[in-house]
TrEMBL record:
Its main location: membrane. It is a single-pass type II membrane protein. It is found in: Membrane. It comes from Hohenbuehelia grisea. Keywords: Glycoprotein, Membrane, Signal-anchor, Transmembrane, Transmembrane helix. It comes from the Eukaryota. InterPro entries: Xyl/GlcA_transferase. PANTHER family: GLYCOSYLTRANSFERASE-LIKE PROTEIN LARGE, GLYCOSYLTRANSFERASE-RELATED. This is Glycosyltransferase family 49 protein. The chain crosses the membrane at residues 12-36.
Length: 467
């Protein structure tokens, strides 16, 4: 039967052609795609949209060819079903890699290929004390300028109502900035904020040159310490400055520190943090435009004398008075003096080594105690504070959300006193086991923790049990 024979031959031909195309396509998907980061991330987007087709299944190969052809026809390859909305796999989908030690490899042991761990898994452990679920997107924008590892990165956090003042900070600093931006996890808020952010980021050259942006997408407001740690973790220099975005930088502390071999040496040791004294205008209306702020200490002192500027948050003296403002006013040019009256509510703005000092405790959420907790643990760990007497920063006034602040302060006060006790005991144990308790680096710990009732007794118990 010639008709049936022709049919069979036609079918065979069709099958062969199909197999060749499927094999070519599978090869493309398996070996070409992995080398293109862009194509990879977008293909993951389509994978997320449909069931992941196995590249070995003939049927799905056909499916992919159709997608490819359809995509090519509308000039939109790779095929992308939802271009307009922000898909989570579009934001980032990296892995973290671990290699065998070079020593093991030298002996022919281990494996040369690194082990890959999904970035999201790694970050969920890195921030396991924070509220969950939460999605962290490091380097959503990455600065185009080159970064000198010996530079000082400003680490800070913003929400969308601080975009304007953040732009001023970037213009003024002209150096590396690592910023965490919180994005509320609702579809409309995410796209709205990312659009605003895009406008902000592309609006100024210093922004695109110097600022790295990291996103936190979740439902939790005011997780300041988590956001601080993210900005610090992804800073690309050896030194950081922890700053609140509404402070105006008035003097060039960055250059002063970098050109002093002595100060750089102390930063490198990791046991010194340099304090930038903080001020504010006494009249709210005077302090709203940083273009009018003083730019050198002489002009600052004149304004202080006239009563127009004073220490930051004078109504909550414990927050900054360890800086010792009287000493600051009379210090000689170039002086750097040690903070000798530290107390646990002290929360100055400091420059310190990125790697080494403890991180901010992420259990603090909301106003009150959060920044002081960062500095308390730093102090206990053996970092001492030194005031840069030629430099200063000034708060740019704005209205606070007072009700939220009051309530959060109330319960954070209790959390903070528990935290201090627990931290003291942890460090007592650590210093004791490293035989450092009676050394000069244990001085901060000894002197500060003695102030807490009952801690000395518990600490001596820990020490006796261990010995
Ligand atoms: C964000 O919201 C979506 C939809 O409600 C949810 O599936 C997802 O788990 C949320 N992600 C985070 C990090 O909260
Ligand atoms: C700072 O203020 C607190 C509380 O008002 C006070 O107890 C302390 O003595 C002050 N310290 C200095 C150095 O002025
Ligand atoms: C530390 O020194 C004090 C005296 O200066 C001494 O009483 C104490 O036992 C010492 N502690 C340790 C753990 O060596």
């Amino acid at each position: 039967m010639p008709f049936l024979g022709r049919c069979i031959r036609l079918c065979q031909l069709g099958l062969v052609v199909y197999l060749v195309v499927a094999v070519l396509f599978t090869t493309f998907r398996l070996f070409v795609l992995p080398f293109s980061a862009l194509l990879r991330s977008i293909s993951e987007l389509s994978l997320a949209a449909s069931e992941p087709p196995s590249p070995f299944s003939v049927f799905s190969g056909f499916f992919w060819i159709l997608q490819y052809l359809a995509g090519a026809m509308v000039q939109d390859w790779p095929w992308n079903p939802e271009r307009t909305s922000t898909s989570s796999s579009e934001l980032s989908s990296d892995s973290v890699f671990w290699e065998s030690s070079s020593l093991a490899l030298k002996h022919g042991l281990g494996q040369p290929e690194p082990v890959a761990v999904p970035e999201a898994l790694f970050l969920s452990k890195a921030f396991s004390n924070s509220m969950h679920p939460s999605r962290i997107v490091p380097f959503y924008y990455r600065a185009s300028g080159t970064v000198d590892s010996e530079d000082i990165t400003i680490t800070t956090l913003i929400t969308s109502n601080r975009f304007k003042v953040f732009a001023q900070l970037a213009e003024r600093y002209e150096g590396p900035i690592s910023v965490t931006i919180h994005v509320e996890n609702t579809t409309t808020r995410i796209s709205e904020l990312l659009n605003q952010l895009h406008t902000l980021y592309t609006s100024s050259k210093s922004m695109a040159t110097h600022v790295d942006v990291h996103l936190v997408i979740d439902s939790f407001d005011r997780q300041f310490n988590t956001w601080r740690n993210i900005a610090r973790l992804f800073a690309r220099t050896n030194y950081v400055m922890m700053l609140d975005v509404d402070f105006a930088l008035c003097t060039d502390f960055r250059r002063a520190i970098r050109k002093s071999a002595k100060m750089m040496g102390r930063l490198r040791e990791g046991t010194s943090a340099f304090v930038l004294p903080a001020f504010e205008y006494t009249k709210l209306s005077e302090g709203t435009d940083q273009r009018n702020f003083p730019k050198d200490k002489k002009s600052l002192l004149a304004l202080i004398k006239a009563g127009r500027i004073g220490m930051f948050h004078a109504s909550w003296a414990a927050g900054h008075n360890s800086t010792d403002y009287d000493r600051y006013y009379t210090a000689k040019p170039g002086e750097v003096y040690k903070v000798t009256q530290y107390q646990s509510a002290y929360e100055p703005y400091v420059v310190f080594r990125k790697d080494g000092p403890p991180w901010c405790d992420e259990r603090f959420v909301g106003y009150g105690g959060n920044k002081a907790a960062c500095l308390f643990e730093m102090y206990l760990s053996g970092v001492s504070f030194y005031v840069l007497a030629d430099h200063f920063i000034i708060h740019q006034n704005h209205l606070y959300e007072e009700t939220a602040r009051k309530n959060e302060r109330k319960y954070n006060r209790k959390i903070y006193s528990d935290f201090k006790e627990e931290t003291c005991l942890r460090y007592f144990k650590s210093y004791h086991q490293r035989n450092l308790l009676n050394t000069s680096s244990g001085y901060n710990l000894q002197s500060e923790c003695q102030k807490i009732k009952g801690v000395s007794r518990l600490a001596s118990q820990i020490i006796t049990e261990d010995t």
